[in-house]
User: Fold this.
Amino acid sequence: MDKFSAMQAFVRVVEAGTFTKAADSMHLPKATVTRLIQDLEKELETKLLNRTTRKVTVTVDGASYYEQACRLLDEVHELEASMSRAKASPRGKLKVDIPSSLGLAVIIPSLPDFYARYPDIQLHLGVSDRPVDLLAENVDCVVRAGAITDQSLVARRIGEFYIMACASPAYLKRHGVPQHPDELKNEHQMIGYMSPLTGKLFSLKMQKDGELVEVGGQHQLAVNDSSAAVVAGLSGLGVLFTSTFMVQQHISSGVLEPLFTGWCTEAKPIYIVYPPNRHLSNKVRVFVDWIAELFAQHDLMNRKSSLPPEMCSAWTAAKESSVVMPKNAQREQAAETV
Assistant:
């Protein structure tokens, strides 16, 4: 029995005074309304209505049930109305964690567009490369890049990026311009990047024309924040390996020079990740959709600045030869917090 429909039918019969009028107001056959009332009385094990050929009256138990049913139905209608208002204009605090690189280069500069659409949402942004525990820290969603590890969370793939090598003109003037990644092992200083989770240095592989090279070399400086690594590169402290979107503008302006054009790295996926709530709140949903739209259209994420054509063509070839993630994995898997 659909108890909610039966409750609605009972209230309508009481208010209309007859089964026929109640059935007409509900756009249901009279027999259906009759059966709903009978099933409800059977479920409650009590008689709710006295029926005669001319009218319907409410029993004592029916009168009590009517009052409680009206109150409950009013609450349901108010809840539905509030959800409709929230859908039209979602509101409230939204706690989000984003990497500093994506936050500073892509997400935060685009927030005026988000607030123009959703002025009643209050964002609390955690901005760092530190991994967070969504459940323990009560975070609504995070943007992260890297391999998928945690199957207990839900992730939506929203983009990808590549790692590239570059250095300042001052550094290259002092140390020369390396022509092959292997030259970094003995002749240059690199800016190391440490995992915020383990403290270990990240390794990197580059490929060109079937040749695969594991990049390595000495370093005087290692950092655990990608934005700090870019500042170190701009300061001439070594060869910098970082995401393309972080240095495109610096390369366009000439304060950094690209290295190893024609070489490429494996694409790094970007996800927005959230706990597996059965009913995703509307404020989280609109933010997730907005982030996906932003990354699909943003110039920095689509490499539309003046990067070397040889590098862009190498990335295109690498992307076309890569394995495509199944669509179901894009929403049911979670990202490593890198």
User: Anything to note?
Assistant: The mean pLDDT is 83.
